[in-house]
Amino acid sequence: MTTATPTQRNLALFDLDHTLLAGDSDFEWPRFLIKRGILDAAQYDERNSYFYRQYQNGTLDMQEYLAFILAPLTRFSRAQLDELHADYLENHIKPLIPNKARQRLAAHAAEGDQIVIITATNRFITGPIARDLGVEHLIAIELEEDADGNFTGRPTGVLSFKEGKITRIEQWLAERGESWDSYGTSFFYSDSHNDLPLMKLVDKPVAVDPDDKLRAHAEAHGWPVISLRD
C-alpha cells in the first residue's frame, strides 16, 4: 500500500492472543480468578467457553462479551487488581510466551521497525504483557474509569475488534502526525480470521498458527503462514 524510501522505517503490527501468546489472555484471566477462588468455576468457566467459541466462529457479540468479562474488575480497587495481575502475568501468562515470538519481535526491532501490538483484549489485561514483551506501543480496548480511577465495567471509544482495528490504528497514526505513507512496508501478524479486514489492508499480512478460515484465505492469496510456537 506504500512505496518505501531509504529513510522510511517499517510498521510491524502484531495481534497478541494466539499470535505472540500460545493462548488467549482474555480467556485465561477468568480461569486465573477461578484458580484464586475469586470466581465460581461453574458460573464462569462455561460462559467463558461459550464466548470463546463465538469468537472462533466469527459471531462474537462484543458488547455482550465485554459486559461479562469486565464485570469482575469492578469488584476491586486498582491497587488490588494490579497485585492480582502481577501474579497472573508471572504464573499464568509468561509460560504462554514462546521464545519464537520474542525472537520475531527482536528481529523487527533490530531492523528499526515501529512495533505495535493491536488487540481486541482490554488494556488492563494486555498492558503489562506488552511491557514484558518489550513493546512500547499498544492498541487495546480502553476501559472506562470512575472518579477514583476504578473500572466501571464498561469499555470506551472504538473497540479494536475486526474493522475497529483499522479505525484504531489510523487514529493512532493521526495522533502521531503520521499516516500509512509515513512507513515503508506495513506488516500484520495474526492468527484469526476476525483480523482479515486489517490483514487485507497492510502490505505484508502474515498468518501465525492460523485458524482454519484464515489459513484457507492465506493459502488462497499466497500469504505467508508461519508458526511462532516453540
UniProtKB/TrEMBL annotation:
Q: Which GO terms describe its molecular function?
A: hydrolase activity
Listed SUPFAM superfamilies = HAD-like
Question: What Pfam families does the record tag this protein with?
Answer: HAD (PF12710)
Where is the signal peptide, in residue numbers? none
InterPro entries found in the cross-reference section = HAD-like_SerB (IPR050582), HAD-like_sf (IPR036412), HAD_hydro_SerB1 (IPR006385), HAD_sf (IPR023214)
Question: Which spans are transmembrane here?
Answer: none
Alphabetized UniProt keyword annotations: Hydrolase, Magnesium, Metal-binding
Which NCBIfam families does the protein's record reference?
HAD-SF-IB (TIGR01488), HAD-SF-IB-hyp1 (TIGR01490)
Protein name according to UniProt: HAD-IB family hydrolase
According to its UniProt entry, this protein's organism is Chromobacterium subtsugae
